[in-house]
């Protein structure tokens, strides 16, 4: 991939995994520093996804979930747990990941991540119910 193609590829992967609504909302801040920061985050974090290599987006999603849980970054963990299905990650895989996080990073990290997963799933079920009732 040419250097000139990298920013667009990073933006495309971010949009594919996190969804249009999230990316559009994060880009809506009129503050120029916020826009520059979003561009930087996209280039650094999502550029790693867009570079290719031996890992699939599913693999990368699982790794991001494990790392954010291990670091106690529950806001980011929730974001990625709610978006992981777009990268091909199943609920069963997230459940298994929580056992690994707990075993290798400790019960506080695993318990916090489990709480977040329960919240994400409850929100997803509520949205599905609300959408089905229309």
UniProtKB/TrEMBL annotation:
Pfam families: CMD (PF02627). Residues 36-117 form the Carboxymuconolactone decarboxylase-like domain. One of its GO terms (molecular function) is peroxiredoxin activity. This is Carboxymuconolactone decarboxylase.
């Amino acid at each position: 991939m040419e250097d000139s193609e990298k920013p667009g590829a990073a933006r495309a992967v971010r949009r594919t995994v996190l969804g249009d609504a999230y990316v559009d909302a994060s880009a809506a801040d009129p503050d120029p520093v916020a826009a520059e920061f979003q561009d930087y985050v996209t280039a650094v974090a999502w550029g790693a996804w867009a570079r290719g290599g031996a890992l699939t987006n599913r693999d990368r999603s699982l790794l991001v979930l494990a790392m954010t849980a291990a670091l106690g970054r529950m806001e980011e963990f929730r974001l990625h747990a709610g978006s992981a299905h777009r990268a091909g990650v199943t609920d069963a895989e997230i459940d298994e990941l929580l056992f690994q996080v707990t075993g290798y990073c400790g019960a506080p990290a695993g318990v916090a991540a489990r709480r977040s997963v329960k919240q994400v799933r409850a929100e997803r079920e509520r949205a599905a119910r609300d959408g089905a009732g229309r």
